[in-house]
Amino acid sequence: MEGVRVAVEADLPEIRSLVADAYALYTPRIGRVAGPVLSDYAALVQQHAVHVLEDAHKIAGVLVVIEGEHGFLLDNVAVRLDAQGKGFGRRLLEYAETLGQRKGYEVLRLYTNEVMVENLALYGRLGYVETHRIEEDGYRRIYMKKRLV
User: Fold this and answer.
1) Residues 6 or more apart whose Cβ sits within 8 Å of residue 89
2) pLDDT tens per residue across span 74-94
3) Domain residue spans of the chain
4) Which PROSITE patterns does the annotation name (predicted)?
5) CA distances from 45 to 13, 50, 55, 79 (A)
6) Do 146 and 107 form a contact (C-beta atoms < 8 A)?
7) Which CATH superfamily is domain 4-147 in?
C-alpha cells in the first residue's frame, strides 16, 4: 500500500511519541497507561513487526502485526493526533488484512481494551467479530477476529 513501509530504527522516537499521544486519552478510562505505550518498539522494529504510514514525510500512523503460534495478530494500530479522522486507521487495517492474506493467513486477530469503545465500534463496522474477553496483564481485553479468505 502506498505510504506504508516497514519501520526502521531511525523511526523509533517518532513511533514512541505517536503511540504515547494516541493512547493518552485512554489512560483515565483504563486507570493506567495503555499497554501499547509500554511495548518494546526497538525489539518489534528489529523483528520487522512495525509498519508506518507516512503522510507529507511524517509518520501519520503505526501498525504492529505479530506472527506467532496463534496466527496473525494485529497488536497495535495508532494514528497521530493531528492526522486522525482522515482514514489512516482504516488504511492501516486494510494493509494488515492484505499483508495477512499475502502471508497465507485465513484470519486476522486483534484485541482492544473494553473501554476503547470507539475502536470496538470501528472494528465491528469493518467486519471483526468478538471471540472472547479476558483480563490479561491487568487489562480487560476484548479479542476479535476477521476472516481474510
Assistant:
1) 61, 77, 79, 122
2) 999 999 999 999 999 999 999
3) 4-147
4) GNAT
5) 12, 5, 20, 17
6) yes
7) Gcn5-related N-acetyltransferase (GNAT) (3.40.630.30)
Residue type, 47: Q
Ranges of H-type helices in the chain: 12-23, 27-30, 41-46, 88-102, 117-125
Using alpha carbons, select from 55, 71, 73 the residue that is nearest to residue 5.
55
At 14, the amino acid letter reads: E
3-state secondary structure of 101: helix
Residue 128, phi then psi, degrees to nearest 5 = -80, 145
Q: Which three cell numbers stand for residue 31?
A: 486507570
Report the distance separating Cα 18 and Cα 82, nearest Å. 10
Residues 84, 60: Cα–Cα separation, whole Å: 9
Averaged pLDDT, 99-106: 95
* pTM value surpassing 0.90: yes
